[in-house]
Amino acid sequence: MRLPRQILTMHAVRRASSVPAGMVSFVPACSTADAHSLELLQDFVSRARRLFVITGAGLSTESGIPDYRSEGVGLYARTDRRPMQYSEFVRSAKARQRYWARNFVGWPQFSSHLPNSAHRALQRWEERGKLHWLVTQNVDSLHSKAGQKRLTELHGCAHRVMCLGCGAVSEREELQARFIALNPEWRAQTSGVAPDGDVFIEDEQVLHFRVPSCEACGGILKPEVTFFGDNVNKATVQFVRDRLAESDAVLVAGSSLQVYSGYRFLLAAGDRKMSVAILNIGPTRADHLAELKVSGRCGEVLSAIHSV
Ligand SMILES: [Zn+2]
């Protein structure tokens, strides 16, 4: 639904005051969730004893991380850039060089993002025994930073790096130090950080960027993140299915569920005739499976819901 221009303008003005100067806002335009929707969502959460929550990029936009698909503000709307494909990363040293150069530049900002009131609300729900399990499609580590324990990062985490040769996992922060040591003179002009920490720099700037390999075996280093075209680990999927089977209701927060890896759990919830509620700005792939759909900002709505 398109909002009248006046409302959009009001949002733009209001956002400008709450976002640091020079930083683009990545929260899509949206009217405040109405009181009736909030009551229904409160009722939904109150009835659930073991709530299963799925989150996506819409949860992190309020922390300053853009999503991929939102109208006007998502990565796809603002640029012609598309995420790295798994096969391209594995096949091409040039693609890896480009990927890591941009990731290197984006890292200081990307790694410094903080959880917002949505992450904090879900962490409180866990503390109070309301939330049984949380599955996130985000790789930004913000749920971990908020202290969430009953958590599966379905698509991995950009704060970890794995070796495609020996499988060793290391901290992304350590790799940053190796990048700096290997590229003491390298500088690049940049603009804009993507959901996975990618930034936009010219190809010619990338040519001289040096990429380290695994210290143990010399293998290729890759973020421990599921790239597009890659599959989520089967054991992880089964683990999440088991947690879903132990739950009695499903809440989707901040995801359009366009990617099958997350959507499959909604299909499973549908098969189990579980109650499903969706909180998201804009339509989702699972709207037909939900008994309740609330349109609103995750931080604003979730922090208004009590976990009783
Ligand atoms: Zn290795």
UniProtKB/TrEMBL annotation:
Cofactor: Zn(2+)
Active site: 155 (proton acceptor)
GO cellular component, one term: mitochondrial matrix
Enzyme class: transferase
Keyword match Thylakoid: no
Cofactor: how and how many bound: Binds 1 zinc ion per subunit.
Entries under Gene3D superfamilies matching the protein: SIR2/SIRT2 'Small Domain (3.30.1600.10), TPP-binding domain (3.40.50.1220)
Subcellular location field: Mitochondrion matrix
Pfam families documented for this protein: SIR2
Coiled-coil stretches: none
UniProt cross-references to InterPro entries, sorted A to Z: DHS-like_NAD/FAD-binding_dom, NAD-dep_sirtuin_deacylases, Sirtuin, Sirtuin_cat_small_dom_sf, Sirtuin_class_II, Ssirtuin_cat_dom
Keyword set, alphabetical order: Metal-binding, Mitochondrion, NAD, Transferase, Zinc
All copies of domain Deacetylase sirtuin-type, residue ranges: 31-308
Binding site for NAD(+): 56-76, 137-140, 254-256, 280-282, 298
Reaction equation(s) it catalyzes: N(6)-acetyl-L-lysyl-[protein] + NAD(+) + H2O = 2''-O-acetyl-ADP-D-ribose + nicotinamide + L-lysyl-[protein]
Role according to the record: NAD-dependent protein deacylase. Catalyzes the NAD-dependent hydrolysis of acyl groups from lysine residues.
Family statement drawn from the similarity comment of this UniProt entry: Belongs to the sirtuin family. Class II subfamily.
Protein's name in the database: NAD-dependent protein deacylase
Organism expressing this protein natively: Gymnodraco acuticeps (Antarctic dragonfish)
